[in-house]
From TrEMBL:
<dbReference type="InterPro" id="IPR024747">
    <property type="entry name" value="Pyridox_Oxase-rel"/>
</dbReference>
<dbReference type="InterPro" id="IPR012349">
    <property type="entry name" value="Split_barrel_FMN-bd"/>
</dbReference>
<protein>
    <submittedName>
        <fullName>Pyridoxamine 5'-phosphate oxidase</fullName>
    </submittedName>
</protein>
<dbReference type="Pfam" id="PF12900">
    <property type="entry name" value="Pyridox_ox_2"/>
</dbReference>
Length: 216
């Protein structure tokens, strides 16, 4: 279950941090909903932050059908990246400070999802991927809402992951210096829920919100 690295995905520096197996790729893609999609529009590069979700060996993202980036990207080459910050690494010199991170970079040809029923199913999967069980409690998307939404997919074939873990790597002579070094772990956490003031009386927090486990 591994992708052979290509000229675009092979790590040339710190190559030991590179991973090409799909288990690793999937675990990082599933750990965060946020990605950055790189497009070429009229010969110029654009990078757009958005949310993604994975189904099998494809990732999906959506946006307005009026979006210039999405309209120009069906059957076009794109680059998708995700990144997670796991910790700040403090060393005994500024040059050896680093960060513990997990990231994925994917290349390929974006494909538009056009069937309305498939679009509806994909959007429900997106919501349930974030908040399991929530989609069934929501009103269905309208025909106009589906028409106004574009969903793009990308097969996970040309991809690589890069992972950095552990503490600082100082020059050997610097370990004798009286300078604190180590790792400050970083994790995204959720705060208390903030109810919409227009919730109907008696509407309680739903289980999909109560059971939310966060990302990371």
């Amino acid at each position: 279950m591994s992708n052979a690295p290509t000229d675009r995905t092979r790590l040339r520096r710190m190559y030991e941090r590179g991973h090409y197996d799909k288990d690793t790729l999937y675990s990082i893609l599933d750990a965060t909903p946020q990605c950055f999609v790189g497009y070429t529009i009229d010969g110029a590069p654009y990078v757009t932050p958005t949310f993604h979700w994975r189904e099998g060996n494809h990732i999906y993202w959506h946006g307005s059908s009026a979006s210039r980036a999405l309209k120009s990207s069906n059957e076009a080459q794109v680059c998708v990246t995700v990144s997670l910050l796991d910790g700040f690494v403090l060393a005994r010199s500024g040059m050896h400070h680093s960060a513990n991170t997990r990231s994925v970079m994917l290349f390929g040809t974006a494909q538009k999802v056009t069937d309305p029923e498939e679009k509806e199913a994909k959007l429900c999967r997106f919501v349930d991927g974030l908040f399991p069980g929530r989609a069934a409690s929501l009103r269905p998307n309208t025909t106009q809402e589906l028409k106004a939404t574009t969903i793009l997919s990308l097969e996970i074939n040309e991809a690589s992951a890069k992972i950095r873990t552990g503490g600082p790597g100082d020059d050997e002579e610097d370990y004798a210096l009286p300078i604190w070094a180590g790792v400050i772990p970083v994790k995204m956490v959720a705060g208390p829920v903030e109810p919409d003031p227009r919730n109907l009386p008696g509407v309680e927090v739903s289980d999909d919100v109560k059971n939310w486990r966060g990302i990371g």
